[in-house]
Amino acid sequence: MCEEKLSVTLTVAEPAARVFAVLADPATHAAIDGTGWVREPVDRAPLTEVGQVFRMRMYHPRHPDGHYAVANEVDVLEPPRAIGWRPGQEKDDGRLEFGGWTWRYDLASRGPAETEVTLTYDWSVVPQAVREYLHFPPFGPEHLTHSLDHLAELAASPAGTPGGQRGSARPRR
């Protein structure tokens, strides 16, 4: 049986606190996303606690509705070392239902202005019923690499937001 997660690591030329702040801001997630599926935040409050739910508008050409929303629940929050969430759907009655996959960023300071960031997409607890209609992983590792490249650019920009001026960060692998 193969491992049921993808991980990619990149060294970013910014302090861990700066990188973490970009990740904790849902307004940056569309610009970070390496798949092109994340569109914009519904909830713009910074991520500050485990259990917090933040919703994002999404688009995928093979999704039955094309445009849809996900409700992400923060399941890891250890500033400035780790942040992660599990995507789900909000049902008509307000209940959240999760598919079993997670996104997690682990940050390791490599000095005052350098951070090693590992992005992990884990689908190890996806139920068999979901696996019957969704293929895992739904993308290759290059999408995670693109996400980390985008994160490095945002962390280096003065504003650190999608509308902010982009810096000239040259991430090292």
Please give a structural write-up.
It is a single chain. The protein is an alpha+beta fold and 173 residues long. It has four helices and eight strands. A hairpin with a 5-residue loop joins strand 7 and strand 8.
Task: Note the main attributes of this structure.
alpha+beta, eight-stranded antiparallel sheet, 18% helix, globular, 173 residues
Q: Globular, elongated, flat, extended or rod-shaped: what is the shape?
A: globular
| Strands, count | 8
Q: Uncertain regions: pLDDT < 50 for 5+ in a row?
A: 161-173
Strand content: 25-35%
Helix-strand makeup class: alpha+beta
Order of helices and strands: EHHEEEEEEEHH
> Percent helix among the residues?
10-25%
> What profile does the largest beta sheet have?
8 strands, antiparallel
Determine the number of helices (DSSP H or I, runs of at least 4 residues).
Answer: 4
What distance separates the N and C termini? Answer: 28 Å
Radius of gyration: 16 Å
What is the residue-mean pLDDT, rounded to a whole number? 86
SSE blueprint:
Blueprint: E1 5-12, H1 16-23, H2 29-32, E2 38-41, E3 53-59, E4 67-78, E5 82-90, E6 96-98, E7 102-109, E8 115-122, H3 128-131, H4 141-156
Helix pairs in contact: 1-4
